[in-house]
Please model this.
Amino acid sequence: MTDTAMMKAAVFHRYGPPESLLLREVPVPRPAPGEILVRVRATTVNRTDTATLRAHPFFARAMTGLLRPKMQTLGMDFAGIVDGLGDGVTAFQPGDRVFGLSPDTFGAHAEYLCLPADGAIARIPGDLGFDAAVVGEGAWYASSTTALLSEGQRCLIYGASGAIGTAAVQLAKSRGVEVTAVVGTRHLDLAKRLGADRIINYEDEGFTEIGETFDLVFDAVGKTSWFTCRKLLNQNGIFTATDLGPFWSNILLGMWFGITGSRRVRVPYPEDAPGFVRHLADLMAEGRFRGVFDRSYPLEDIVEAFRYVETGQKTGIVVIKFQ
Ligand SMILES: NC(=O)c1ccc[n+]([C@@H]2O[C@H](COP(=O)([O-])OP(=O)(O)OC[C@H]3O[C@@H](n4cnc5c(N)ncnc54)[C@H](OP(=O)(O)O)[C@@H]3O)[C@@H](O)[C@H]2O)c1
Model:
């Protein structure tokens, strides 16, 4: 590959709506020592991408750039083929089929991506397709809640049909947890296929009126609150959420319960992406985790993909497939 090799990438130079994304030819990155170059075959558009594009919530700019985005290309999930190695890399070979996460620098909405070889990368199990291997983002966020659960405990997952919720059901089941999933009518069969022990339709049942309590209630779509769910919690039960909550209540309550020492409300942030991706590869190899996919788009239609994800109506994961 020459210094002038070019690739297609979706770039953005200012925060804003999906139309802020521009399809451009940019130089193919070169792997630094300790990095690998991946030829991306599939990526996703997820709620982390859409929120980062819009710099929502505002304080996220402290990490992504105050006035303008520090990164030019979004895309946290990737699956592809190792195309080049930086000096000192021995863990991968050109031609390896890999998947993983780029949680710090993103960059997967492009034909090539460089990552640290010791980062959040694993080989794709078996003959799983690239577009079936881009499962990391929702699962990683879900893992920050499911890691709080132990075998034999009971949890309720509210909104078990998004990328995070579908992953949360499977990760909780893999830990031996009894799962009650709350979904809308069109996702009842999905929740059953994912292995939920009990399924509640939020459209025709008051999910808080079921007369049971749980060790953990997880709002996986940012549509309920501690105030609504607290009667579902047992004495030491925890409420976790993916979102800030009405009037930032999840953050404020999280701080309050932190001060009191009970930590009953949390907005957990996931950790150890490399370890998690390796764990996910094992679960997929054992047939204990599979991605739930909504639809796919070519890179050329990425603006459409962002618009769709922003509707909040996707089922599981939205994929960008490279030709
Ligand atoms: N903390 C972070 O950094 C972070 C990162 C990523 C995402 N998030 C947040 O995580 C949440 C989930 O993201 P996601 O990508 O998994 O999914 P998503 O795209 O937000 O989930 C959409 C799903 O939620 C269901 N839904 C919509 N309204 C609902 C309601 N009132 N009750 C229950 N389910 C409802 C939809 O199906 P139906 O309408 O058919 O029910 C759809 O399947 C988002 O709110 C996002 O803001 C946070």
Observations:
- The chain has nine helices and 15 strands.
